[in-house]
Amino acid sequence: MYVIELALRMSPVPVSVQRKEAEAAEALYQQIRQALEIGQPRLLELTCEKVEGKKVTLLISEVLAVQLYEKTAATGGSKRPGFSFDS
Q1: Is 28 within a domain?
Q2: Is 82 part of a structural domain of the chain?
Q3: 83 lies in a domain?
Q4: pTM of this prediction?
Q5: 11: nearest Cα among 62, 80, 67, 69
Q6: Maximum CA pair distance of the chain?
Q7: CA 72 to CA 53: how far, in whole Å?
Q8: Strand, coil or helix: what is 76?
Q9: SS3 of residue 27 by DSSP
């Protein structure tokens, strides 16, 4: 399972959606990254594969950052999001 997490302006809690396949997660990450770069589309609707029917629409100008990481069942959680020197 892969998590795409978005940091929003003025919000202490990130928004995240999950994808089962690495290719789908990478495609969504690139779609969000491109929207941030060009400012289009103005609204971005995201769906979650884990919870069917769950949707969120974001104003792209309020997204500050996006990150992609793999959620692993073997460790009982997920790889530490962000960047660090620890493994």
Answers
A1: yes
A2: no
A3: no
A4: 0.79
A5: 62
A6: 38
A7: 23
A8: coil
A9: helix
Query: For tokens 């990254």, what's the residue?
Result: 33
Q: What are phi and psi of 64, to 5 degrees?
A: -95, -35
d(CA 51, CA 56): 12
How many CB atoms neighbour CB 84 within 10 A?
7
Amino acid at 41: P
Taking the C-alpha atoms of residue 77 and residue 5, their distance in angstroms, rounded to an integer, is 15
Task: Specify whether the CB–CB gap between 43 and 55 falls below 8 A.
Answer: no
How many C-beta neighbours within 10 Å does residue 2 have? 21
**Can you name the residues that pair with 6 across neighbouring β-strands?**
15, 66
**Angle in degrees, CA 9, 14, 17, rounded to 5:** 125
pLDDT tens digits for 20-72?
999 999 999 999 999 999 988 899 999 888 778 888 899 999 999 999 999 87
Q: Please check whether residue 29 lies inside any domain of the structure.
A: yes
- In the chain, the number of structural domains is 1
Domain extent for 36:
2-70
